[in-house]
Specification:
Keywords: Ligase. By secondary structure, the protein is of the alpha/beta class. The chain has three domains: 4-161, no CATH class; 178-409, Mur-like, catalytic domain (UDP-N-acetylmuramoyl-L-alanine:D-glutamate ligase), CATH 3.40.1190.10; 422-585, Protein-Tyrosine Phosphatase, Chain A (Alpha-Beta Complex), CATH 3.90.190. Helix content is 38%, strand content 21%. It is built from 20 helices and 23 strands. An eleven-stranded mixed beta sheet has the order 9-8-7-10-6-11-12-13-14-15-16, with helices on both faces. A seven-stranded mixed beta sheet has the order 21-20-19-22-18-17-23, with helices on both faces. The protein has a five-stranded antiparallel beta sheet with strand order 1-2-3-5-4. Helix 3 packs across helix 4 (120-135), helix 6 crosses helix 14 and helix 16 (475-488) crosses helix 17 (506-518). The protein is globular and about 85 Å long.
Length: 586
C-alpha cells in the first residue's frame, strides 16, 4: 500500500474508511484536485429504518425514504445520504458550499465519494471525519445510540474546522503547448510520432511515456512516466518548447492528471484492458476515465477523437474544445457530422492521408505507402495512429510541410518506436526468418500484431509466436490471450515476464494461457522463463521464410542484444514493403 505522501491514506482504526486518496489534478470526478474516499456503508445498509431516518434528519436530507435494510432502495438512499453527509460536515465546519460526487461500486456495501480540495490536510481530515460518523452506525450491545449519531456530525465538523489546512494542490499550469495522448492501444506510438514531428519542426520537445521522460530525443529519466508525474517532469526542463504526454488510466484514477489543461488531446481507442482494477469493470467505465483527458482541453484547442470507435466519438459531447476526428472511412457519418458542426477530420482517400475542413476540398498530405509506420498500409492500427498523430500535430500548429516530413521519416524501428512493431531479418540455416516484436499487451494489441505477422508471411510459411502476459490482468483476459495466440499462430510457446508477475505465479499464468489455447484444440504449450528464451527457441525451429512474433514487455534490451548477436538486422521501410508485396503476390 502506498504511503500517504503518494496520495493514499488508509486509517485502519476507522471501520468505514476503506481508502482515502488525494488526487493532485483533474480526475474522473472533477476537472481539478479532489479527494476520493472509498467508504464501507455496510452499517448504513443494515441499520433499522428509524436509525436511517435519524441520520437523514440530522444532515438535512428532506423527504428521505430509506427503504428496508439491504434493499435496493436502501442502497440508493445510502448514496444520497453519504453525499449529503459530506456537505453537512463541510458546511458546519465553515465551508459555504462543496461539490460532491458519489458512485456505487461492484460491492453493495462500498461507495466512492469525491470532493474538490484546496488544502490537503483539511481535506484528509474531512474524509476521516465523514467515516467517523458512519462508524457510529455500527451497533453496540444495546444497538445504535441515535443521540450519539446526531452528535457525531457536530463532532466531525469541529474536527475539520480545527484541523491544520496543509498545502495547496501541486497541479501545474503549462507554460508551453501540451499534446496529451490517451487510449487503450496506440498511445505510445502516437505520442512518439507527434514528438518526432515536433522535433522536425525544430522545437525542443519533451515527452513522457511508459519508458521514461525524453528531452530532445534523449532519455533523461527512465521509468514509467505515463502518470501525472510525467507531465511535471517534462515541464521541469526549462528548455522544453513543446510537451507531449502519454496519459494512462492508472495515473488518472490513482493520482489525477498533473496539469490544469492541455492544448490538444488525442484519444486513440477504448478496448478491454485493465478491467477489474480500481473500480473500473466495464468498457463504458474505462471510456469515462479516458474522457478526462479531452475534457480538460482548452476551449480554443482541439480534441482529436477516433471516429471509428463509438465510445471515443461520444466524448465530443463532454469537451469544451473544438473537435477533430480521424477515420479510415472518409464517408463515415461521424466525419460528416463533425464537419457539419465546424470541426475537422483526417482520413484516407484513394490511398492518400487527407485533411477535411468544412466547405473545402480534401487536402492530400501524402500517400500511405510513404508513411513507414503503416508498414506499406498493412497495419490498419498504425494507419489510425498516423491519422491521429497528423491531426494532433496540425492542431497544435505545426506547419503542413513539417507534418508531411515527419510522417515520412518516423520509422518502425528501435530508434523511433522501440518495442512497437519492430521488424527484423534474422539468419537461420539455409536462409532467413522475419522477427516481429511488439508489446501486444491485450486482445486488440495481439490481433494487431497478427495482422503484421500474417501480412509479411510468404505463402506456405508458418507463424510462430512467443506469448506472455502481465500478472495483474483478469483471468478472462489472460485466457483470451492464450486462445487468440493458439488460434492464429501455427506454433505457440510461453515466454514469462518475471518483472511483471504482479502477485501471480508462473504456474498460474501458464495454466490460464494454456486453458485458453485448449479452447481451440492446442495442448502441450511449452513455457520458457524469459522472453529471450522463448525467442531463441522459436527462431531455432523456424524454417527459412517463416515469421516469428514475440510479445515483449519485460526485457526489450535483452531481446535487441540477442537479435544482434544472432546476426539479425532491423528491416528498413523498403525491406518491409518488399516483404509485404511478396506475401501479397503469394
Amino acid at each position: 500500500m502506498s504511503a500517504p505522501g503518494a496520495g493514499q491514506d488508509v486509517a485502519p482504526t476507522t471501520h468505514a474508511l476503506v481508502e482515502l486518496r488525494v488526487l493532485e489534478g483533474p480526475n474522473l470526478y472533477f476537472p481539478r484536485a479532489a479527494v476520493k474516499l472509498t467508504l464501507d456503508v455496510g452499517a448504513l445498509a443494515t441499520a433499522p429504518v428509524d436509525v436511517a431516518l435519524v441520520l437523514a434528519e440530522r444532515i438535512g436530507l428532506e423527504g428521505a425514504r430509506p427503504g428496508e435494510p439491504e434493499s435496493g432502495f436502501r442502497q440508493r438512499f445510502a448514496l444520497r445520504a453519504v453525499a449529503r453527509l459530506v456537505r453537512a460536515v463541510a458546511q458546519e465546519s465553515g465551508t459555504s458550499s462543496l461539490a460532491v460526487r458519489v458512485r456505487p461500486t461492484n460491492d453493495a456495501h462500498q461507495v466512492v465519494v469525491a470532493y474538490p480540495w484546496a488544502h490537503r490536510e483539511r481535506a484528509r481530515a474531512m474524509g476521516r471525519a465523514v467515516a467517523s460518523v458512519l462508524d457510529t452506525l455500527v451497533p453496540g450491545d444495546d444497538g445504535v445510540s441515535t443521540d450519539r449519531l446526531s452528535a457525531a456530525v457536530s463532532v466531525a465538523a469541529e474536527t475539520v474546522a480545527t484541523s491544520e489546512p496543509g498545502d495547496a494542490p501541486t497541479t501545474l499550469e503549462p507554460r508551453v503547448p501540451v499534446v496529451a495522448v490517451t487510449g487503450t492501444n496506440g498511445k505510445t506510438t502516437t505520442s512518439r510520432m507527434v514528438a518526432h514531428i515536433g522535433r522536425e519542426w525544430g522545437k525542443v520537445v519533451g515527452w513522457s511515456n511508459t519508458d521514461g521522460v525524453y528531452v530532445d530525443g534523449v532519455l533523461v529519466e527512465p521509468g514509467d512516466y505515463s502518470g501525472p508525474s510525467g507531465a511535471g517532469r517534462v515541464l521541469a526542463h526549462e528548455e522544453v518548447e513543446l510537451a507531449v504526454t502519454e496519459t494512462a488510466r492508472g495515473g488518472i484514477l490513482l493520482k489525477g492528471i498533473g496539469l490544469t489543461r492541455n492544448d490538444v488531446s488525442v484519444v486513440t481507442n477504448v478496448s478491454a484492458d485493465h478491467l477489474g482494477l480500481h473500480g473500473i469493470d466495464t468498457l463504458d467505465q474505462l471510456a469515462e476515465v479516458k474522457a478526462v483527458v479531452p475534457r480538460i482541453t482548452a476551449p480554443e484547442g482541439w480534441a482529436v477523437l477516433n471516429a471509428d470507435d463509438p465510445r471515443v466519438l461520444s466524448m465530443r459531447w463532454v469537451v469544451k474544445s473544438q473537435v477533430w476526428v480521424f477515420s479510415r472511412d472518409p464517408d463515415s457519418p461521424a466525419v460528416r457530422e463533425v464537419l457539419a458542426d465546424g470541426g475537422r477530420a483526417t482520413t484516407v482517400i484513394d490511398g492518400w492521408l487527407c485533411v477535411l475542413e468544412p466547405d473545402a476540398d480534401p487536402d492530400p498530405l501524402l500517400e500511405l505507402v510513404d508513411v513507414p509506420m503503416t508498414l506499406a498500409g498493412l497495419s490498419h492500427y498504425n494507419v489510425e495512429n498516423a491519422l491521429a498523430a497528423a491531426s494532433a500535430a496540425l492542431a497544435v500548429g505545426i506547419p503542413r510541410e513539417v507534418v508531411i516530413a515527419g510522417l515520412r521519416s518516423f520509422l518502425p524501428d528501435a530508434e523511433h518506436n522501440p518495442g512497437r512493431m519492430n521488424c527484423f531479418t534474422v539468419p537461420v540455416s539455409d536462409g532467413e526468418v522475419t522477427v516481429v516484436m511488439d508489446l501486444a499487451h491485450n486482445e486488440a494489441g495481439l490481433e494487431a500484431m497478427f495482422e503484421i505477422l500474417h501480412g509479411v508471411r510468404p505463402e506456405g510459411a508458418r507463424v510462430l509466436l512467443g506469448m506472455g502476459v502481465v500478472g495483474d490482468r483478469s483471468e478472462e483476459l489472460i485466457e483470451k490471450i492464450g486462445e487468440i495466440a493458439a488460434r492464429d499462430a501455427d506454433v505457440v510457446a510461453i515466454g514469462h515476464k518475471e518483472k511483471y508477475f504482479r502477485g501471480r505465479t508462473p504456474e498460474e499464468l501458464e495454466g490460464l494461457m494454456r486453458a485458453g489455447a485448449e479452447r481451440v484444440g492446442v495442448t502441450a504449450v511449452p513455457a520458457y522463463p524469459t522472453e529471450v528464451g522463448v525467442l531463441s527457441a522459436l527462431v531455432g525451429q523456424a524454417l527459412p521464410g517463416e515469421v516469428v512474433g514475440l510479445m515483449c514487455h519485460a526485457d526489450r534490451e535483452g531481446v535487441y542484444e540477442w537479435i544482434a548477436e544472432a546476426g539479425g538486422v532491423p528491416d528498413t521501410a523498403e525491406t518491409l514493403a518488399a516483404k509485404v508485396r511478396a506475401a501479397r503476390a503469394g
